[in-house]
Amino acid sequence: MTVSATAGALLGLLADRPMTGWELVEEAGSRVGNFWTIQRSQAYRELAALEREGLCESTQEQVRGRRRYRITDAGRDAYLEWVASTPRDENVRVPFLLTVAFAADIPPGRFAELIEDQRRRHAEKLERYESLRKQLAADDSPRAGGRRATLELGIGYERATLAWLDELPSHLGIDLPDSATET
């Protein structure tokens, strides 16, 4: 059975342990959220569909009335088929690139502010990733290698983005205040 990437990711998380929808979204944010976002509403829709298809099942918790989901044997088979399949091409969506595409219509001072905001965001993300790298260094669990590998791509992406932001004004042929391009 073919499942979507989001459904496959949810099944992969359920393969580790049963979780509520809330816990799944939190775990997804922690484990794959830096490169694949899953909204709560999307997760609950996917979980309902997975349950209808017999790929997971849920039980109502007595305490808070939340549903706890667990993967079924059919779900594990669908997950293993999905995770071993050839991924589709990426669909990169970077909102700031839309701004850059129309940079000629933005006053230079405002554009400098936008670049500075992007630098701050990417520098903060790089700092978080590097901190997480230190935390994962001692992790010897079976999934740690995959987590470290995806984290390294994130670190490389953030470093490349910061370098690109430094070069951006010259690509556009504009002069910006020095503070917008300092590292």
TrEMBL record:
Keyword rRNA processing: no
Domain annotation Transcription regulator PadR N-terminal: ranges: 10-78
Signal sequence residues: none
Segments forming domain Transcription regulator PadR C-terminal: 92-168
Recorded superkingdom: Bacteria
Keyword Coiled coil attached: yes
Coiled-coil positions: 112-139
Pfam families noted in UniProt: PadR, Vir_act_alpha_C
Keywords: Coiled coil, DNA-binding
Gene Ontology MF annotations: DNA binding
Name by which UniProt lists this protein: DNA-binding PadR family transcriptional regulator
